[in-house]
Amino acid sequence: MTEPEAIPLARPELGEREEELVAEVLRSGRLSLGPMLERFEGEFAEWLGVDDAVAVSSGTAALHLGVRGLDWSEGDEVITSPFSFVASANCLLYEDVKPVFCDIDPITLNLDPGAAEAAVGEATVGVLPVDILGYPAAIPALAELAEARGLALLEDACEALGAADAGGERLGTRGIASAFAFYPNKQMTTGEGGMLVPADGAMASLARSERNQGRAPDMALVDHARLGFNYRLPDVAAAIGVAQLERLDGLLSERARVAAAYGERLAELGGPAGEGDPDGLVLPCADRGHERRSWFVYTVRLPKAADRDAVLGDLANRGVEAKAYMPSIHLMPHYRERFGYRVGQFPVAEDVSARLLSLPFFPSMTEDQVERVFKALDESLTGAWV
Ligand SMILES: Cc1ncc(COP(=O)(O)O)c(C=O)c1O
């Protein structure tokens, strides 16, 4: 019998429409700052329900231009989550802003608003919440804190396109500067790419200038009015984005379908965060109130006594791609060296970082594949106690 094909961690859904629009750009000869870029920005803004959106070369670039648009700079401190992809803190370092980490909520894995409030100090200028693993951060509570303490917000919604917050608002639509990302494992992809939803028109025109080496947005001047970067999104990438937007609602519901299938199958081994058996697997938390997750990855927290590396190795041998997801940023070497962060400061984040693993997850995943992952995980766990 031949071995079944390995199940990948992620897989983008690309088809004829993406090919058609990419071909349209290639034939047009307008490969950068062309009409497809504008079309992508317009259609993205329309899908989300906002007035404007600025496409850039990555989610990281969107975050960086957000930091600059808010005028956060050297000497400033911004409160953020240690349990995130490193880009959400790196974007602060690019402008010599100090990331002040505080611990996360053990259920949602997002910045704990109480911890954020306690961390506000003299030099605090803002809060950078991350909607981790597609689950909305406590945006209304953080917006209230920001209002009360005169802080600005920059939301890292890179993993959460389509999610809604506790007030029922879709992320990115509250007038808070928000970054989205389109790497191939995301809800929609452009290959590489990102989008800044600006807080206002001034931030939008600054970002359009800064993504293009500081040139005036209308390109009338050859002069470079200010310092800028090359954060342009190529039109070929924008074409993929337009095609992905056309099917985004379907992609999101397929992701939700796969997550539901996992939830059902894995219930035998544990339960959702907040309800799960602490001796078993902790599954992603269920939506609470108006909060709606947009499914990005499917992660499980292993029991404390399980050896994650052994589980990962065993899953790989069984043709299931899985990944440890993800280390706490404050313990990365350059953060420790530069800011003196150390083990034990954010126990919830550190515990989650040590135990979480991400399973194969993509919209076209079949029930059979979910079943194979379940069996592999069940068997791997049996032999993985330390
Ligand atoms: C939480 C978070 N922030 C920022 C980013 C950065 O996006 P990109 O990889 O497009 O630069 C990502 C994407 O991987 C992310 O998951």
- Kindly provide the radius of gyration, computed on alpha-carbon positions and rounded to a whole number of angstroms: 21 Å
Question: What ligands does this structure carry?
Answer: pyridoxal-5'-phosphate
Strand order of the largest sheet: 1-7-6-5-4-2-3
Which descriptor suits the 3D outline? globular
Which whole number gives the mean pLDDT?
A: 95
Helical content class: 25-40%
Question: Strand share of the residues?
Answer: 5-15%
Name of the CATH homologous superfamily of the largest domain: Type I PLP-dependent aspartate aminotransferase-like (Major domain)
Strand and helix order: HHEHEHEHEHEEEHHHEEEHEHHEH
The end-to-end span amounts to 34 Å
Question: Given the structure, what is the number of helices?
Answer: 13
Supply the number of structural domains. Answer: 2
User: Which regions are unreliable across 5 or more consecutive residues at pLDDT < 50?
Assistant: none
| CATH level 1 class label of the largest domain | Alpha Beta
Largest sheet: 7 strands, mixed
Total number of beta strands: 12
